[in-house]
Amino acid sequence: MERRSFLARGAVVTGAALTATAGPFQGLVAAHADTARTGRGGPRPGPGFGALAPTPDRTDGQVRLHLPKGFAYRSLGVAGEPMSDGVPTPSRHDGMAAFRGQRGGTVLIRNHEVPGVAPAFGNPSDAYDPSCGGGTTTLTLDRRGNLVDQRVSINGTMMNCSGGPMPWGSWVTCEEAVDGPDVVPAFPGQDNSKLTRKHGYIFEVPLYGRARREPIRNAGRFQHESVAFDPVSGAVFLTEDNFVAPCGFYRYVPPVHPLRAGRLLDGGRLQMLAVRGRPNAPLQLGQPRGATYEVDWVDITDPDPAHAPGTSWFTASSAVANQGIARGAALFSRLEGSTYRHGTVYFCSTQGGAAAPGDELPPVPFPRFGEGRGQVWAYDILRRRLRLVYESPHSQVLDLPDNIAVSPNGTLILCEDGDGDNYLRGLTQKGEIFDISRMVTPAGDADAEFAGATFSPDGDTLFVNMQSVIGRTFAISGPWDRC
């Protein structure tokens, strides 16, 4: 069952707010009033951009995206097409990063968020768990953007949602799952007894060659979504996407600085963010204008808990977060994409914020944690200061932001994961929300969404995925220097 289909079926924080300080996105207002100036899908041009218009895919002439004038795109790495190693391209394209390749080319490492129990793509003898259909593929493009190689880089993992690039030349991929032979699945019809390994970890995937298939267990077993690396401290910041319970914002401190080790080592310390002086601060709720908080970090004593056979998914999915909450950690709703820039980690709370009257999320048959249309947060690593960058006032303005990227000029790029039409939105440092692209929903796949936005090393191309049954990667060119 697709996550959004499952979701579709179914007090203001005070006291700890602090005076804001100067910096990128400083002074943006929560629920910015002037961003709701048009209806959904109406022209909302960004800085120098015009209204969106149907734009044919240069690969085959089909209209899959609406873009401003001056932008063009083409598809590559389409699900089902044979890769260079003979393996059919997996579906459900998700998080992704672009790296500088050889001779001016680009290397993309791309997640495939295949859920549940399914045969591993590629060679099952190479798989972490042959009963899981998730993993990553690596695409090599030449200096002109032509796809010259595509192959499996890790297989046999589950629900590879997002992750994060590492500056030594690797991608850390995240399992948004806690399934295993010890856990009873959340959804009927899935047989976890077929699984051979525990899931819910992060894995490092090198730029070239195959991954080691060794989970970083001390970085936690939970619904991992994304990671962001701080090259100064060597810490890795992690988000958690649990749609039924409070989520945490974590940091993993490896035993050796990764820039010295040349890779991410297991055996470090996992911690969870807490608002100083306010235990269990409910940050999933609507925030006051310019909300800023000083924070501390609380230790997670058992990051890889052993579950007794027959443990329910709902219990297992909260086992790590509940340790932090018991020590006063802050509460978020569905933390998803994250990105690092100049000492700050930006991350999305997909269902955070206050619900606008008449714009409530659809009812669901379980307790849902978070009723808003999305928040964007910024964590200043040096100052240990958390700040609300933006809170959606209405789904017509921003609807459930998921993956996030940052342009060379500092504009945040937000991938929506809402119902109906999904957009790529831009959020400028002046607080302007604007439309970059609208996806034409594929026939028969209403759950399709944007995912994995990432800029090429030269900043001239935005790569982004259509997460769909027939997933594909778009390479979008245009005047990105104005973004």
TrEMBL record:
It comes from the Bacteria. This is Alkaline phosphatase PhoX. Coiled coil: none annotated. Keywords: Signal. SUPFAM superfamilies: Calcium-dependent phosphotriesterase. PROSITE patterns: TAT (PS51318). Residues 1-22 form the signal peptide. InterPro entries: PhoX (IPR008557), TAT_signal (IPR006311). Residues 39-49 have a biased composition (Gly residues). Residues 36-55 are annotated as: Disordered. Pfam families: PhoX.
